[in-house]
């Protein structure tokens, strides 16, 4: 979704062009089971093991890594202790059903984070 929207905004030069440029300049690592072709600069796909694919870039630059999207990826990263900080956007509704980010336990996941 990002690659469909942001490159055009950068090129258009509108008020969100600086944000679009920052997103385009950032290294983008995509997790997918399907083989993908990228048209947006600085984009690459995790090859092989998810945890190795995320750990390597974190060790390379030591800086923050942002994540957007799949709950299954967040669950795996939480379980492995690879998330240092979690920001949640919670819509103002409660339906009582659906996917849970964490289990019914109120205990935080274990790890060295």
Folded structure, characterized:
The protein is mainly alpha-helical and 113 residues long. It is built from 4 helices and 2 strands; from the N terminus they run ααββαα. A two-stranded parallel sheet has the order 1-2. Helix 1 crosses helix 2 (17-25). The two termini are 29 Å apart.
Write a concise keyword list for the protein shown above.
4 helices, 113 residues, 36% helix, mainly alpha, 2 strands, two-stranded parallel sheet
What is shown here, in short?
The protein has 113 residues and is mainly α.
Walk me through the topology.
Layout (H helix, E strand, L loop, with lengths): L1 H11 L4 H9 L2 E3 L12 E3 L4 H12 L9 H9 L34
Parallel strand pairs: 1-2
Helix pairs in contact: 1-2
Strand element count: 2
Low-confidence stretches: none
End-to-end C-alpha gap: 29 Å
Q: Encode the helix/strand succession as letters.
A: HHEEHH
Number of helices: 4
């Amino acid at each position: 979704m990002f690659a469909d929207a942001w490159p055009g905004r950068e090129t258009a030069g509108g008020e969100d062009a600086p944000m679009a440029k920052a997103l385009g300049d950032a290294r983008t690592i995509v997790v997918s089971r399907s083989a993908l072709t990228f048209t947006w600069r600085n984009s690459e796909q995790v090859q092989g093991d998810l945890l190795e694919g995320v750990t390597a870039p974190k060790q390379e630059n030591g800086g923050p890594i942002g994540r957007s999207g799949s709950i299954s990826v967040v669950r795996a990263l939480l379980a492995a202790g690879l998330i240092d900080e979690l920001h949640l956007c919670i819509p103002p509704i409660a339906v009582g059903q659906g996917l849970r980010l964490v289990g019914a336990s109120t205990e935080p996941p274990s790890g060295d984070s």
